[in-house]
Amino acid sequence: MRLVVLVSGTGTNLQALLDACADPAYGAEVVAVGADRDGIEGLARAQRAGVPTFVCRVRDHESRADWDGALLEAVAAYEPDLVVSAGFMKLVGPPLLERFPMVNTHPALCPAFPGTQGAADALAYGVKVTGATLFVVDDGVDTGPIVAQATVPVADDDTPASLHERIKVVERSMLVDSIGRMAREGWSVTGRHVRIG
Ligand code: GRF
């Protein structure tokens, strides 16, 4: 399964995928990594792994619709079977979503705490258990059909950063396990239900 991975930051989820893809038995390969900004560690990780990269910045386009078109063109050049949003901090518009299936990983248990501050919002709410969700991207914010979830207990002395770091540990394994199974066993979506195998 050919993957294009989209990143905006550190890229530890990307790194976990790159490491898994080094084994041919894993069943997937990262054919390109795209970003919405320059100079991020995620792009450097791709370059170190010898994976082609591209940058598509909103500010280089006249409108968000133009950016959506440019992002689609950049992704389509690599003919992915699946686009993986791994810490990509942009909402992607219909052109890309209508052409390619896309999954996103979110640091909370959807449908709770959508948006950019999933870990901090869960902590502020006072939940005792939170986690990470892998879902198929639709036109909402963290609302798509759920592929997998993993839980993390909240500690009394957690800060948003410490909680997010612990979530990211399970998030990476969940991402790697799920993408590998999707690649090797196939997957389908019926309504809100994602089935692997
Ligand atoms: C992940 O927790 C992701 O869910 C969130 O941002 C983080 C990205 O981490 N949106 P990294 O760039 O993969 O290290």
TrEMBL record:
EC number: 2.1.2.2
Site, as annotated: Raises pKa of active site His: 142
Pathway info: Purine metabolism; IMP biosynthesis via de novo pathway; N(2)-formyl-N(1)-(5-phospho-D-ribosyl)glycinamide from N(1)-(5-phospho-D-ribosyl)glycinamide (10-formyl THF route): step 1/1
Binding-site residues, (6R)-10-formyltetrahydrofolate: 64, 89-92, 104
Keyword Transferase annotated: yes
GO cellular component, one term: cytosol
The Formyl transferase N-terminal domain, residue ranges: 1-178
Active-site residues, record numbering mapped to chain: 106 (proton donor)
Swiss-Prot/TrEMBL GO biological process terms: 'de novo' IMP biosynthetic process
Domain of life where this protein originates: Bacteria
Record-stated family: Belongs to the GART family.
Stated name of the protein: Phosphoribosylglycinamide formyltransferase
Source taxonomy: Bacteria, Bacillati, Actinomycetota, Actinomycetes, Propionibacteriales
Gene symbol of the encoding locus: purN
